[in-house]
Automatic annotation (TrEMBL):
Main localization (coarse): membrane
MF-aspect GO terms: active borate transmembrane transporter activity; channel activity
Residue ranges of the TM segments: 67-86, 98-121, 180-200, 207-227, 252-273
Protein name as it appears in the record: Aquaporin
């Protein structure tokens, strides 16, 4: 390595949005360590003591901290994404579909930017399962993550019920089309979401710092497309928590199964089509939208 070259940061880890900015940190949620760079030392004329980037210890984020961040992030998402439709019902469509899409998309964006470096900001059991299936996340942590996500969804839903009662039914995702059409829509929009998430979270060529914006924009687009038809859930806990709070379980299986299958397909397809990096090829330097 020549003395004037900038040191290459570790490859983007396999979790949504983490880490979002160029640094020497390595996200402890990254399950696949094969993407770690080879040993790259500072120039010999650098001030003592010399060190190597791969010698820095990996931050050890406890599972408790990850679950805490995942619970808070999922709570914020479900509260925001469900409040929009409830306000539409209470105030005669004051939010509109665009407002509903913005509530969910902006919530996803700010959560990824604020907690992605801690828990990976999964916020979605379908995403967690898909990442585990593709070896971007350890299966051992999947049950704990799903418990945190489901419990956060239920807590957020009952908080909304207490605030906006008796208008909780407006936040339940119920299809206005046939069951088959709702299933197809939820499958396809979750496919879109996981295709984008897998790109910005696991591919070193993607601009990982833009993960929050890219994923949030995808959520907004999907709700604009499917919100009036299937509700634009993309997330089993987006449907499960409000359904429990409102006592309305109409075709709930669609919103549990279709997003999970769509997530597996979307993540799997991106893994198949993405460019492969050889062992001796330098990954593209990450860029930050804050610069």
């Amino acid at each position: 390595m020549e003395g004037g070259d900038a040191a290459t940061p570790p490859a983007t880890p396999g979790t949504p949005g983490g880490p979002l900015f160029t640094s020497l940190r390595v996200d402890s949620l990254s399950y696949d360590r094969k993407s770690m760079p080879r040993r790259k030392c500072l120039p010999l004329d650098a001030p003592l003591p010399h060190t190597c980037f791969t010698d820095f210890p990996t931050p050890d984020i406890s599972l408790t901290r990850k679950l805490g961040a995942e619970f808070v992030g999922t709570f914020i998402l479900i509260f925001a994404a469900t409040a929009g439709p409830i306000l539409n019902e209470k105030y005669s469509n004051s939010e509109t579909l665009i407002g509903n899409a913005a509530c969910a998309g902006l919530a996803v964006m700010i959560i990824i930017l604020s907690t992605g470096h801690i828990s990976g900001a999964h916020l979605n059991p379908s995403l967690t399962i898909a990442f585990a299936a593709l070896r971007h996340f350890p299966w051992a942590q999947v049950p704990a993550y799903i418990v945190a996500q489901v419990s956060a969804s239920i807590c957020a839903s009952f908080a909304l019920k207490g605030i906006f009662h008796p208008f909780m039914s407006g936040g339940v995702t119920i299809p206005s089309v046939s069951t088959g059409q709702a299933f197809a829509l939820e499958f396809l929009i979750t496919f879109n979401l996981l295709f984008v998430v897998t790109a910005v979270a696991t591919d070193t060529r993607a601009v990982g710092e833009l993960a929050g914006i890219a994923v949030g924009a995808t959520v907004m687009l999907n709700i604009l497309v499917a919100g009036k038809s299937s509700g634009g859930s993309m997330n089993p806990v987006r449907t499960l928590g409000p359904a429990i709070a409102a006592g309305n379980y109409k075709v709930i299986w669609v919103y549990l199964l279709a997003p999970t299958l769509g997530a597996l397909a979307g993540a799997g397809i991106y893994t198949l089509v993405k460019l492969q990096t050889s062992d001796d090829q330098e990954p593209r330097s990450a860029r930050s939208f804050r610069r």
